[in-house]
Amino acid sequence: MNYRVVYDLALVLTKSQLRGYQRSRLLVRLFGDPRIVLLADVLLLGGLGGLGLLIVSRVPTQLRSMIPRSEGQALAGIPTAIAFAVIVFGVLYEVSQPAQIMNTDLVNWLPVSPAEYTAGSTISECYLYSFMACLFLGVLLGPAIYLGVIATWLAAVVMSTISLFAGACVVELIDASTNRISSTFYKRSGRSAILFRLAITIFFLVFIQLLFSGQIAVFLLQSLVRTVEVAWFVPVVWSSVSVLSLSQGDLVNAAVFGTLSVAFAAALFGVAVGFRRKFWVPIPVSVRLSSRAYHPIKLGLKLPGIGAAESAILLKDFRSLVRRREMARFLAVPFVLAVSMSLPMLSPQTQPMPAEIFTQLILFVIPLVVFCNILGMTSIGQEGHAIWNLYAAPLKPETVLKAKFLLVTFLGLIFAVAMVIVLGIFSGTSANLPTLLLVGVGIVLEQASIGTFFGCRFPDFRETGRARYVSVWGSLAGTSAGLIVALVTVAPLILATAREIGSAYASLSSVALAMTITGVALKAAVHQLGQLFRNIQS
Amino acid sequence: MMFGERNLKTVQVNGVYKSFGSTIALNGVNLSIDQGEVLGLLGPNGSGKSTLMKIVAGILKPDRGNVQVFGKDVASESVEVKRIIGHVPESPRLYEFLTGMEYLDFIADVHGLGKAKGERIAEFLKALDLEGRENELMNSYSHGMKQKIGIIAALLHRPKLLILDEPLNALDPRSARIVKDLVQKLRDSGVPTIFSTHVLDIADAICDRIVILDNGAVLAEGRSGELKAKAGTPGSSLEEIFLKLTGSSDTRDIVEALT
Fold it and tell me: pTM for the whole thing?
């Protein structure tokens, strides 16, 4: 193995991932230098350690007795948590990469051996996620110094590094094997494979979001510590068992599980290299959607002003949402929001949802704003380089915009209806549902138009990993504008509720306001799209 | 406007100037194309061929000057002009999450082809050997297959003007022959074509007139024979004339230096 090649590959892959996540040239340049990352990690460890020491020394005396037990368990939990975090983030990155990027993996054509590539890629993953280990370990450094268990802390550092490496090897393994599995699977299953992939991606994204919701995270951490104590036969927790054993003074167990962890990481690396060797060049996925003759879909949009061109763009954009794996995260938004909202209500300790319109409005409007706004803002940028097709076609900006707006409205209305039904079930009353539905229609229309306006004004056509499709400033401005406008729209209803006046007139006022905003935003969006079509630069 | 009248000017490019930042892509280009004429655009990489084609197609707006297509000003009536143009870009930019058939169906709808689209798409798919692959997602298509889809998309709506930017790139010999024959058949029925290529033999064979662009300006213009006479090398190939006119005839020295 040529270690110079491994080092160079690790650097290039790290920069490539950083550019996918972070567009700032300064940050990419800074974090493209391993010395800077190392320095940042040391500063993070030192800073958090100092802060932790300061806090621990001021903990009331009656609580201090609890620290030793918690410290040992927390240090033991870190290596396994790190491995899981690397796997989750690594796979998440893979999921959000456009297929074009995957297929043009240049390294396949370079004189690099599978072992060198796997080593470079694994080191790059470790390098990128080292901050997470430093964050956890930094938090526990202060208490470790205070309690004099620095040896256990150092063991946690070593075991976390091994776990980081093992987690990165698993990501490599998944990456290499999905090349082959997905191509074989898609070839056989066609359309159902695409739907299956969409469902899996959405499920995965919902799962990740839930991991970061406080309730679930606490539950998982508690389970993890319990698991570490009993599941010594699971290789992924061996590193944690080693640290736990050391914290309990069992040096033999600590040494055995430490050695086993190193062996496990080495074995994973060997398997990952084997997979890379076998599935070295990604096989182009050839998906046949149907073996029958093609019949154009009749959309049945016989609304005034909706012609064949609008219907064609709408259908094309819908297919883009459903078929492109990098677009699945936008479709996952309503599921994530719905599940996040429902979880606290499903807990046996929580009270039933209040039936007041005010509470229901908050629960209803915010997810709706987020969903429609995001879909609208990304509707232009998601065209990518293929926007050329719209430029070259005999289309007026109004036609394109109408189609974009209609799709967001259509999906937003489905979400609004589903949310109203869910709210009705959880609150146990249908009294507020007509009002919510009426306001929901208004919110969907105005947010679709505002989102589309910002999408036309600040599009980002770059097709990189984790592409945003709208510039950072556009996204911030669009989301802020959406939330402010939504607040203005529901203001009559909130005022009527506060003064205990009937909500019928108030909701009609809200809808009238929303319609006016929609009209203005759509006009502005058409103007912006016209500008975009006139100012093409290449 | 009647086809077959060869002296009618279908495209008029008048003093077109275009720059991208500090790079001047086109520097006062004037040219015209007659009815049923195949105009070959030649020039080194970066000479402004693609920019000129995009301006004629109404995709880019010139900084100065104007372009008329069948009497319509491209800048102010770009939608009307796009309706009658068929454009194949230098590299196909397709919606790769669609199947070939879905993409062509989309293009047909955008051009408002109506019910006749199915039959027409099927004819083209068969002619260009894509039959049987039309229901596959285009992200698995080869470059040549994508190029064929781009060519079909440009021809579906029976354009009155064809703009082909290196259309034969990556095509297999049979498909390349079909495209060349199509261009010649369309020329016979009066459809003018702007044809850019780096393969000078093809330009020599199918273009009625050749324009050589260099650094955004027209370096030479005329029929192949006229260009040979202008270059003072009547017996030479178009390649030799091209290299001589664009100042790149020192290739032998370069090859020597490289090897």
Answer: 0.76
